[in-house]
Design goal:
CATH superfamily of chain A: CheC-like
Strand order of the largest sheet of chain B: 3-2-4-5-6
Helix content of chain A: 40-55%
Shape of chain A: globular
Structural class of chain A: alpha+beta
Number of strands of chain B: 7
CATH architecture of chain B: 3-Layer(aba) Sandwich
CATH topology of chain A: Chemotaxis protein chec
Number of domains of chain A: 1
Largest sheet of chain B: 5 strands, parallel
Radius of gyration of chain B: 14 Å
Strand content of chain B: 15-25%
CATH architecture of chain A: 3-Layer(aba) Sandwich
Number of helices of chain A: 4
Oligomer: heterodimer
Helix content of chain B: 25-40%
Number of strands of chain A: 7
CATH class of chain B: Alpha Beta
Shape of chain B: globular
Structural class of chain B: alpha/beta
CATH topology of chain B: Rossmann fold
């Protein structure tokens, strides 16, 4: 997985968390994983298809989700399963949407699918060409994990290149 | 949340009525809080494009805040259908996916403006004033036009 694919997601997560939480964030850990991804808390997953394909997971524990929701809403919110899930999905939506916007400006074309909750205890296996990058953003209200597994769609890429040279 | 000088309808001085369309309940609630801080009134909510069309017909809002990526029917298609039926509809797209193609497609199909998530209240406030144009007026706390 190339850095040009990953960097927009790092930049976007940093910007969305910083704006939503009104604070600075730091990347606490970074690792590549080929084993199945086991969620750490409540995980929202977004699939992208097009010139680049794969999925991105935003994962945080329920207590952190409630604190994030309160910060983003500007008010203390009562904890509920719905609030926790909605927070994970909305964070995923914003982080991925902003990253996709940046990648689109570089010439990559995608379709972004609505976030779905990743509820499996088994995890999602990465494959040889979609190894996952897992990073942890440390924020004052807790840790937010982002798991990215993307690859170039070789056929689409080749078609685009051919069209561009035709 | 920061309070803004209320934006009212020019014709009758009543609060601007909003329809908020987003598949995320959390996002809808956040937007609802923002428009209330602008002195607006929530006329309706929808979680997908199809429901947005029926809610528009039911509530006839002054402004629609419409997400793009949603299940069943995406926001751009819903905006197009609403504008076909109601050419005066004022639809503002509110999405995290803000690349140029999306913005152009939305504007070509009838949306009036685009705001990228995460939404800054001060940005949305200015966009709403712009989209309302002469049909909206900013009032002071006592309700006098400004």
């Amino acid at each position: 997985m190339k850095m040009e694919l990953i960097q927009p997601f790092i930049n976007s997560a940093d910007a969305v968390l910083a704006q939503g939480l009104q604070c600075s964030t730091a990347i606490g850990s970074l690792s590549m994983e080929e084993e199945a991804y086991r969620r750490k808390g409540v995980a929202a997953m977004v699939w992208v298809t097009g010139d680049i394909e794969g999925r991105i997971i935003i994962d945080l524990d329920p207590e952190t989700a409630v604190r994030v929701a309160g910060k983003m809403a500007g008010a203390e919110l009562p904890e509920s399963d719905l609030l926790v899930k909605e927070t994970a999905c909305e964070l995923a939506n914003q982080i991925i949407g902003n990253a996709i916007t940046a990648l689109n400006d570089q010439g990559f074309h995608f379709r972004v699918h609505p976030p779905v909750m990743h509820t499996s205890e088994e995890g999602i296996k990465s494959s040889e060409d979609t190894e996952a990058l897992v990073m942890c953003f440390e924020t004052p209200v807790g840790s937010v994990f982002m798991n990215i597994a993307l690859r170039y769609n070789r056929k689409r890429h080749a078609d685009s290149a051919a069209a561009g040279h035709a | 949340m920061e309070q803004f000088a209320p934006v009212k309808r020019s014709k009758d001085g009543q609060p601007v009525r909003y329809l908020i369309v987003d598949d995320s309940v959390f996002a809808r609630k956040n937007l609802a809080r923002m428009v209330e801080s602008f002195g607006g009134h929530l006329a309706g909510e929808a979680g997908d494009g199809l429901t947005a069309i029926t809610e528009y017909d039911r509530t006839h809002p002054d402004i629609v805040l419409m997400d793009i990526t949603m299940p069943q029917m995406e926001g751009i298609e819903a905006a197009e259908r609403i504008v076909q039926a109601h050419p005066d509809a004022r639809i503002v797209m509110v999405s995290s996916v803000g690349y140029q193609e999306n913005i152009v497609a939305a504007l070509q199909r009838g949306a009036r403006h685009f705001v990228q998530k995460p939404v800054k209240p001060e940005v949305l406030y200015e966009v709403i004033k712009y989209v309302l144009g002469e049909d909206g007026s900013v009032t002071n706390a006592a309700g006098a036009g400004a």
